[in-house]
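Hey, can you fold this one?
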Amino acid sequence: MTKQTKTWRDYNPPRKLEDCQTIKDIAVTEFRKPVVGFPGYEVDHYGNVYAERRLSGKINITARHAIILKPGSHPRDGHQYVGLEKDGKRHFKKVHHLVAEAFVPNPDNLKDVIHKNGNKKENYASNLKWGKRGVKPKNISIEIIKEKLSQGMLRKDIAKEINISTCILRKYTRKYLT
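Sure. Predicted structure:
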């Protein structure tokens, strides 16, 4: 039984679609995009942020590979963030902003990124949209919510019926019903 050694391809996935030789290479290439303003960092549409690192082998071969950065959680607003280095300084960036800048089109040049389901830990591209903070979603009618609550319906059932998260429903019932 021979010991299988890793090649440079295991550490260094191709950057262009033309250079891909396996399905794994194609998947890595299509779903990772560089982080704007931070060379050596990439983000994928699932919300993973990658940092490029150098590996030194025993045969004086230097290879590059990417590691996934572990996001922290902001104590006040609950958003996930990562620390990125540029010019010797550390910059903390919110993960959902990095994903939205790379994958979500912003034709109106809006500044805020909103999680569609209200869960701040789900930073995948299909869950993000550009918008304005504090704007009430269109599918929430306070009168309908009042009526359903007075009938004894549970908040989680109301949220499922009008297709929003229970977190957003709780926020708006506190704001408009108290």
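Residues 166-177 form the longest helix (12 residues). Let me know if you want another pass with a different chain boundary.
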